[in-house]
Amino acid sequence: MNFDFSDDQKQLRDQARKFLTEKCSPKAVRVVLDGKASYDEELWKGLAEMGFLGVAIPEAFGGAGAGHLELCVIAEEMGRANAPVPFSSTVYLAAEALLIAGSDDQKKKWLPAIASGEAIGTLALFEGKGNPSPKNVKLTAANGVLNGVKKPVADGAVADFAVVAARTGSSGRDGDISLFVVDLKAGGVEVKSLTNLDPTRGQAEITFRDCKAEPLGAAGEGWSILTQMLDRAAVLCAFEQVGGADRALEMGRDYALDRIAFGRQIGSFQAVKHMLADMYVSATLARSNSYYGAWALSTNAAELPEAAAAARISATQAFQHCAKNNIQVHGGMGFTWEFDCHMYYRRANAMALGLGSLTYWEDQLIEHMRKKNAA
Amino acid sequence: MNFDDTPQEAAFRESARKWVEANAPKELHAELSRSSLGRIRLAKHDIVDVGKAWQKKKAEGGWACLHWPREYGGRGATPIERVIWQQEEGVYGKLTQPFQIGEGMCGPTVMAFGSEDAKRRYLPKLASGEEIWCQLFSEPSAGSDVAGLRTRAEKKGDNWVVNGQKIWTSGAHYSDYGLLIARTDPNVPKHKGLTMFFLDMKSPGVEVRPIKQANGMQEFNEVYFTDVVIPDSQRLGAVGEGWSVSLTTLMNERMSIGSRLATGVPELFEFCSNLMLEDGLAIDDPAVRSKLANWAVKSSGLKYTSYRAISALSKGDRPGPENSIGKLVSGMMLQDIATYAMDLQGAAGVLTGADEETVQGQFQQMLLSSPSMRIAGGTDEILRNIIAERVLGLPSDIRVDKDVPYNKIPTKGR
């Protein structure tokens, strides 16, 4: 059994950590947090130069052609650094959608541009409240044009193109949904930035008015492609969450060693030690579930939907738990804008909703476990 | 990243599988498979009898304590081969329950601190199940704070004379030998006055009394010592070094990887798949699904954490500290899951009784037994301390009695 990343992959993780420690310090994150930029453009260029944006994109389309395990270790570091860039929207969602269902022309047009950092992509799925469901897709596609409103669209204000879920039928079945690729700079589109919980990753409302769109994949296959996209992105996001959880745990541990109260390090009090031990437990369970997700993702295993849901739930909970209790360990200082704790707290809670809430993933997990048990 | 064996591992697995296939007591397979949550229910057999028979057969085939050196009854197998054997032994591994304390704790301590004569005399018979060992550490006033134990051993010529009481001793009533830690010097701080011994459990002055537990069962014992004589040749380690010897014992307990911890998740999943509530099957209820999913990911997280440890063994590395979370997570889960399974039944959840013959009764048994899972082998609180101190590097507790001579430590009623 070799249920671990290879030495090369671990080396890549170290390389990514070193790069991000240098180029993505908390100070750099705060430039975006404070609204002085919509994302860190310098960092984005650097990620492209390092080959991180195209690590899982085949060489034929301008990528490094490494693979998804390599992308997982980079994702972990992006989460640890709280990177303020549209990485998940572009790499886990838009690029993956093209890899799953794009035509050769679509891949040639967008994938090399993603790898080189020239194109930012995103997924436009949600239309207000609600979890991923065909019923919640109201935006229509007819005669090659889209009409409707999507929100929230992660990184929508900085994206060059979007994969859009649209209604092309009214039978009440999954086959009513089709996917489209839209060049957001080409007209028929109105983009409005929205205030949101985690300013280091923007959210937008996009209105489509007779907007020209190219089909992505076959008509009526949209929901099936989308489900695959969400499963794949769930694993990759789980690695970001694992990275964030680990960092929050480290911050709490370091503060507990540093801070003196009642004449001793606060990390010598059992109430604090046990809180940190429980954070370690959550982070460890999340990491192990995410490794299984990584295996399923990289081998395209039949177990992917179940593995993805388990990784998603476990990593979401771990990041929320660690980010929350990191503030608690810090006491009053943790509740200041000046300390970085709140950046992880914001990111943890925003990420918990981005691909659909826990309720959605819990339901998915049980459904897949049932199918497996019945088989 | 893959779950495949290396060619050597695959060959080893194949030979283990063939041997189990040819030798296992298949007539017990169904009953052993049904025995869940660490309890073995055999209608017609005593677990010690059938366990001894299976262990003897394994020893003859070279599969007992296989990671031990040959001269002490093993076959010098690697850690990963031991895990593969456990996987292939499967449900029959439940038959080794009476020997687990001996194999996991007593044997390694004798191996590390016993004389060559003692090792050759005792270890092969321990490995083959011919002689069963128990561990005599905990006392009524020394549980988590085991270094505060009171049982006295006093030197008389070439012998030691032991007086005192131990508690929570699994299997003492059928054990042949016991590993005993006792206080040999009360005038020095508590960790420094302890010494480790082993003794014949049939020695005059040893009295074993079963404890009736909160769950109504009797699995543990109290052991009383009245002027019990132990030859000095049965001392393990130097006089006063008992504490560091005990750390070897306890470390071996925690090193056992791949042991399957019961979580209650498969039982709850099956229960919810069949339980009809007013609005349909429990498993179709979103609230039930949410609970189930949360426990399922803890359970899968534990499983893949152990896979990570196995992978480290496979590469010849030491597993990381992440395995220390196993008992902490599974103990709490069992209790929570039992409570929830009963809650789903409404007022009728109290009925049936903890009889283990019905599904409802199984959850009651789980409810009543689970508190011990959170206490035995390190309480939840001690485990959190261990994680905090040894994994996260937080300071150890301030110990007010650390440098005080044992007989000057204030206690209740001494």
Multimer state: heterodimer
The total of helices of chain A stands at: 11
Overall shape of chain A: globular
* Element pattern of chain A in H and E: HHHHHHEEEEEEEEHEEHHHH
How are the strands of the largest sheet of chain B arranged?
Answer: 1-4-5-8
- What portion of the residues of chain B fall into strands of 2 or more residues? 5-15%
Can you describe what's shown?
Chain A has 375 residues and is of the alpha+beta class. Chain A has helices at residues 7-23, 26-33, 41-49, 68-81, 87-101, 104-115, 222-258, 270-299, 304-330, 341-354, 358-374, and strands at 121-124, 140-142, 145-154, 161-167, 177-183, 189-194, 203-212, 214-216, 260-261, 264-265. Chain A has a 4-stranded mixed beta sheet with strand order 1-4-5-8. A 4-stranded antiparallel beta sheet of chain A has the order 2-3-7-6, with no helix packed on it. Chain A has a two-stranded antiparallel ribbon with strand order 9-10. In chain A, helix 5 (87-101) packs antiparallel against helix 7. The longest helix of chain A has 37 residues, at 222-258. Chain A is globular, with a radius of gyration of 20 Å. The two termini of chain A are 26 Å apart. With 414 residues, chain B is an alpha+beta fold. A 4-stranded mixed beta sheet of chain B has the order 1-4-5-8. The termini of chain B are far apart. At the A-B interface, helix 7, strand 10, helix 8, helix 9 and helix 11 of A face helix 9 and helix 12 of B.
